Amino acid sequence: MTMKRNTHIFDLYWEDILVAKVFANTCTRLNLLNLSRCHSISDNELIPMLRKNHDIESLNLSQCKNLSAKCLQPVILHCNNLRILKLARCSWLTTGAIEALALHQSKLEDVDLAFCIAISESCILIFIKKFREIKTLNLEGNKQVTDKCLYTISKYSKSLKLLNLGGCCEITDKGVRALALHCPKLEGLLIRGCTKVTENSLRLMRNKVHLDRRPVDPVPVPIYVQI
Predict the structure, then answer these.
(1) What three-state secondary structure class fits 164?
(2) What is the pTM of this model?
(3) 140 with 119: CB under 8 angstroms?
(4) Are strands 84-86 and 110-112 parallel, antiparallel or unpaired?
(5) Which of 3, 7, 59, 94 has its CA 20 to 30 A from that of 122?
(6) Alpha helices, DSSP H only, in 14-84?
(7) Cα–Cα dist 88/65, whole Å
(8) Smallest Cα–Cα separation from 138: which of 67, 178, 89?
(9) Which residues form a coiled coil (predicted)?
């Protein structure tokens, strides 16, 4: 566990769950809260902490498996300076939570929604339309992302610099072409495993945008040995 008094940062690791309970009752000035991979923490520990810390600007709950969408309510309603939100591989994240986030928040710039399989394409569209100053967006592993999302990004996300679409296997050249033509600040595009995207659209970005289209590593084939 790391606590820096001057910057009000709290990095919590899974073995520090007892410390989390203490901090939930004592910390009221946190700006950055990193709980990534803290598998033991639950709503019971997190919600009291978030209720007392309305100045949080950066929140990382990636791979926290023992939470529910309810834990985001204090952040959605009271953390008005939230700029960074990382929720990668949070299967508990719901469409309703994303819609509420879009309704009450306004300053998000860096968002990670990788492998959030329970959210819908419609709520992603709402999210993109609301947060027009977003600079980094990770949608990796969300098969519900289609060209419609890319059209919406190309229309509203003029400040976007880095976009991760790895594993979004439904996107095509049409959507990528829209990004190439209408996202002037785009610096990096990750499209690993996007088999429907070809050089027909990517050539529009060559020498201007860093492209990563390495294939997703295949699942290893088990070797059976006869006994």
Answers:
(1) strand
(2) 0.85
(3) no
(4) parallel
(5) 59
(6) 17-26, 43-51, 73-78
(7) 11
(8) 89
(9) none
Closest CA to 205 of 171, 175, 167: 175
Cβ proximity of 86 and 59 under 8 Å: yes
Length of the chain: 227
**37 DSSP 8-state letter:** T
**Interatomic CA distance for residues 108 and 124, integer angstroms:** 14
Burial 80-104 (b: 16+ CB within 10 A, else e): eebbbbbbbbbebbbbebbbbbbeb
Residue range 48-100, pLDDT digits in tens: 999 999 999 999 999 999 999 999 999 999 999 999 999 999 999 999 999 99
Burial class (CB in 10 A: 0-12, 13-18, 19+), 227: exposed
Q: Are 92 and 111 in contact (CB under 8 A)?
A: no
Q: What is the CA radius of gyration of the chain?
A: 19
Taking alpha carbons only, the member of 76, 79, 179 closest to residue 137 is 179
Using CA atoms, how far residue 161 sits from 14, 18, 44, 176, 196, in Å, is 32, 39, 36, 14, 23
What six digits make up the tokens of 152? 């919406």
* CA separation, residue 180 to residues 85, 197, 206, 211 (Å): 26, 13, 10, 12
In this predicted model, what pLDDT tens digit does every residue of 148-183 receive, in sequence order?
Answer: 999 999 999 999 999 999 999 999 999 999 999 999
Residue linked to tokens 């949608």: 139
